[in-house]
């Protein structure tokens, strides 16, 4: 019997992918490596100390300009490895595409 793959598929990066974490209020920003990511969570390798940083809620920045980001919370710290979970926007609804009718009635 084949084993079932439960949960979202996780992508693992061989060398890691350079990303940043940043406070919700923008008071701090630190670089780290993205080790693995799925639709719900990610694993980061952090260089330096996380002491004193508020990691209850923060942004994971995927670009240096901050245009691609996800809101996150810390799940677990294991040495220099951080396990984070992506948060859904509060009050966000599923977007439904509306069809635009270009016909004009006379």
Helix and strand topology:
Blueprint: E1 11-23, E2 29-37, E3 41-46, E4 58-61, E5 69-78, E6 81-86
Antiparallel strand pairs: 1-2, 1-4, 2-3, 3-6, 4-5, 5-6
Overview of the molecule:
With 106 residues, the chain is an all-beta fold. It has a domain of 74 residues: predicted glycosyltransferase like domains (Thrombin, subunit H, Beta Barrel). Helices cover 0% and strands 45% of the residues. It has no helices and six strands. It has a six-stranded antiparallel beta barrel with strand order 1-2-3-6-5-4. A hairpin with a 7-residue loop joins β4 and β5. The N and C termini lie far apart (64 Å). The C terminus is likely disordered.
List keywords for this structure.
106 residues, mainly beta, Thrombin, subunit H, 6 strands, 0% helix, disordered C terminus
Instruction: Give the C-alpha Rg.
Output: 18 Å
Largest sheet: 6 strands, antiparallel, barrel
Q: What is CATH's topology name of the domain at 13-86?
A: Thrombin, subunit H
Q: Mean of the pLDDT scores?
A: 83
Please give the share of residues in helix: under 10%
Put simply, the count of helices is 0
Structural class: mainly beta
Distance, first to last CA: 64 Å
Strand sequence of the main sheet, in spatial order?
A: 1-2-3-6-5-4
Uncertain residue segments: 97-104
Spell out the CATH superfamily of the domain at 13-86.
predicted glycosyltransferase like domains
Beta-strand fraction estimate: over 45%
Give a count of the beta strands, DSSP E runs of length 2 or more: 6
Give the class-level CATH name of the domain at 13-86.
Mainly Beta
